[in-house]
User: What shape does this take?
Amino acid sequence: MELSKVTLEIFSKLEQQWLSHYEATTKTRILSIDGGGTTAIVAGAALIHLEDQIRVQTSDPDAQIADYFDIIAGTGIGALLAAMITADDGFGRPLYTARDAVQFIAESNRKLYNPKHTGVFRRHRRFSSSSMEKALKQVFQRKDKEGRLLTIKDTCKPLLIPCFDLKSSAPFVFSRADASESPSFNFELWKACRATSATPGLFSPFHFASVDGKTYCSAVDGGLVMNNPAAAAVTHVLHNKRDFPSVNGVEDLLVLSIGNGAPAKRVHDVRECSTSSVVDIALDGVSETVDQMLGNAFCWNRTDYVRIQAFGLGGEVTKAEEKKVLNERVLESLPFGGKRLLQETNGNRIKSFVQRLVANGKTSLPPSPCKVPPYASR
Assistant: This one.
């Protein structure tokens, strides 16, 4: 009997050591989607391929991106994609697949970015705020009898969406962690997506409040400060011990950062600069700077940080454009400056990344704090 007790204690200690080692080698997985543009060609193609590969490699036709990532961040149109693939259907599952989200943007592009006329004789490049807001309310409305508008808390996984607050002259980041703490930091999802998309000159600033009406914000485009939200997501995970207690450094992270296309034509002369080109340079510069910083942070193991980007694409998301994105060779940032063109394509790099995702297994983070278990209503 005593020998059995000793044997049990020995095996219990061995099991604890094995579990602690297993937990330490499990990476926390971050997905980041850039802002920029109105058609999401690069992000759309990458997300569809990402989800398709997850289903192929797990042999699960119902698997979705949120099943294999611990946190998802997005700016601008990237925020709309991020919010759609994390929105909770009320039963702990994503409301939309990646293909659903990309298809919505393709079919609703004219509603989201509906040009409006200003002035009597001239047509200025501005978009209708009311048209976008109507489309966003429809997509983030729960599909039940109540038809309740979803909030930041109503997400399957932690979500980060940045904007810039004119009232405080500082960045403002919507996060499920803050929304879970207080209704003063919980906002309707459509408002967060509208706020991060309020590009100056194209949309008017967006004035809105939290669900309890205690926090006010006057927002413009999050891309002005965080067009590539990957760094914000990494920082959030490193300092959020409540949701990510096992993360001690970047060695515990697995990051997929998806760009949204970069212009093929570069400005080489200051005389070529227009207002729109300066904005493009600023947005592209923010994204490239973040990519360079993360490339340096992960230089010891670049398989833990993957960046998907494509250049010179335009128009709508079509099969041909998707193929171009996936077939384009990877341009990887080098430590301390410069880039190198790899033989690997974007499509192959996503496939390899999914192998690591699947090896880590499904995420174990709790679902939306607003999720009500089925038995609770009985």
